[in-house]
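job 3f2a | input accepted
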Amino acid sequence: MNYHKRVLWFVLIITFSLFILSFITEALGIEWKPFKNISILSDIVRHKEKKIDTIAVAEPEVTTKDSLHKKFIAFDLPNRVTAYYVDSSNIVLKNFMNKLAELKQGKRKKIRIAFLGDSMIEDDFITATLRRLMQQEFGGYGVGYLPMSSELAGARTTANIFSSGNWQEANFRNNPDKQTLFISGRSFTASGNAWTEVQDKTAMPNQPLNKYLLYGKTGNASINCNNVTINLSGKQGFNSIVIDSSANNRVKVEIGAGVPVFGISLEAANGITVDNFSFRGNSGQEFAKMDSTFLATIASNHAYDLVIMQYGVNLFDKPSDEKFDWYYLPMKKSVNRIKSAFADADVLLLSCADRSFRYGTDYKTAIGMPVILAMQQRIAYENGIAFYNMFTSMGGDGSMVKWVNDKPALAYKDYMHPNDKGSELIGKSLFDALMFEYQKLSKPKK
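job 3f2a | predicted structure (446 res):
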């Protein structure tokens, strides 16, 4: 009996001691690691959860660059571009705006704009409007870049692309041989002899039009252009040659095996060219993996003066998505790679457009949209580039639902893609935003 009493007293003393220690540590907020896992109050005391700042919404510090003060804040103005200047009279994309002024004054012949994006700009949506308005204002004509073949060629209203069925395409999604890809995300090689014929439907049939062949590194090779043999030599990873400059908005090219080809560009000798580089499903991170030397060769041989990057809607896999920290660093590196390679060009990042999902019985803006918008603004800010908020320019929260339900509709019922009418509005909004900055050149600074 004495033995059992001693055991009972021992258990009671230990239990009471643990209770007292647990009470003291919980009450005073003391955290002793060896004791943490045996606290007998841990299951009945509710602790406050620690807030974890996501990488998307952390606010960078105010910085100064070229004596122009900048601050990261949520710039939500529609139909405007920003470089986060505290002084709103500072010109955003100033290098590009000065080039536009030189073009207008006859001091410069040409300006090229590269528009990199996803399926939102497929079929030349948005870019067709921006191109038309820019060319009306500053001169030029021509549709710009076209791929050697495309499964979606029939849907495009600004160009026709006809091609033989033996082009082999390497791209962002399928590149087993690690071929060098153009900024379109594509490269083409002929299996045997292959041909492509393109027609620029934005140019008149009797307008002189330079047709450039864009191709990769190759030895001595020859192509057939409109039944004329042209010799090629390409020592660099990217090469560009005018294969025809006649007053004709069509060109046909025949190429044999072994020559890596990126596409054809149809451009006037003077004025504005806007190249559409759409790639369905792309989120923009792929450029971080591209070779800097190759990109710099493009900048040297086929210079761009403004690079626009439009991405975001493909980040959503499901309606509940709210965590996108995985996207921040790859996209930041991607933007930086483009900015560094095209050092003479300004870079403009477009935000994600509105996208909606069904929540309960109604379609609403994706709940993760604020996180993506904040992250994209931070990427633009930290890379020192300009930013255009497409989300607010569309109307902000709930705008995609409104666009789908409008009569006539401005978006498709996938609640993700603006249609031709909606794309026209976005293209006009972007043009107006650029012109707002351009007009600052003629305004004396206060």
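job 3f2a | Residues 2-28 form the longest helix (27 residues).
job 3f2a | closed
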